[in-house]
Amino acid sequence: YAAQNDEIARLQLGNDVLLEKLINEKRKVSILEDLESQMQGLIDDKAH
Asked: Which of 22, 42, 18, 20 has the alpha carbon at shortest distance from 30?
């Protein structure tokens, strides 16, 4: 059982790390999307 529990703990730790990375990536994506729409707004302003 000890070995099994160690494995479970290890997997949970790995999951936490991946979750953290995923959250960071999503944050980056939303920042980029904001920038993209701001740039599009500037381009539209210039076009008119």
From this structure: 22
